[in-house]
Amino acid sequence: MFAQFSFVVDNIAMKVRVVKPYGFCSGVSRAILLAHKAKEEHPEKKIYLLGMIVHNEKVISSLQDEGFVILDERKDSLANLLESIPEEQVVVFSAHGHDEKLDDLARRRKLIAYDATCPFVLANVNEARRSKEEVIYIGVHDHLESQAFLANCPTASFYDVKSNIFDDHCVSPSPLVIAQTTLGEEEYDRAIFAIKAAHKNAKEGKERCPSTKERQQSVYDIPSSIKEVVVLGSSTSNNSKKLYEIAVEKGHKAHLCLGLDEVKKLKLEGKEVALSSGASTAPDDFDKVREYLETLS
Q: Were both Cys, which of 144, 201, 256, 294 would link to 174 (CB 3.0–4.6 Å)?
């Protein structure tokens, strides 16, 4: 069931409408907890986070301040980054999933590995492998989650929601369709329409991230009377950008902000504001912005 809105009220007027859910999703929380567990269990070793464990610069900066070493997938391939880790150190694989060949590479390098792959991401791979039919995957071509899925299920066809290019080599009359967990509903629906035009008996997979769907629906449900919408999240976060795009599509004046410093640059005094967040925004950052907005009159 979709989360309902709640009001935060000061002594003058209703100023902030909090869009639930907000803060970290369960997959992100699990990944960060696992990174800290690795550090606690191996205090004498460096802890390397392979890939951006979450797509949020503030969270990554905080982890760096704690001594974690971030290996950024935008700078090199995950395999090369993994090779750069000294032997017998500790590596944490990101929540987005990874090519399982990297597990073998980590063992060969005598690394202590922790796997923070989101359970929903892992479930997609497992569902594809159980399928007796061919698989079509819907996703964003340069996203780690899509890259990991296609590496682990290399025979899958691929529909890229950004270019709407369908790399279709299915011959099955009823292929299984699986989607990146953080896609927007309209992206998914557009892709399904195109896929079923080519494969009318295509079957849709089960695993979609419930937190992503709830957040998107909650932004769709923001009343049109609220003109300003602030989405807390990174421009590198697919799910945060999607919340912003939904707000714009609905006609709101929307702002995608990484944190409080960016929100303070907006002219929001005296306005009713709906405040949402992507799944990789820290709850503390959300609370700071909410408290700031409450002070505006």
A: 201
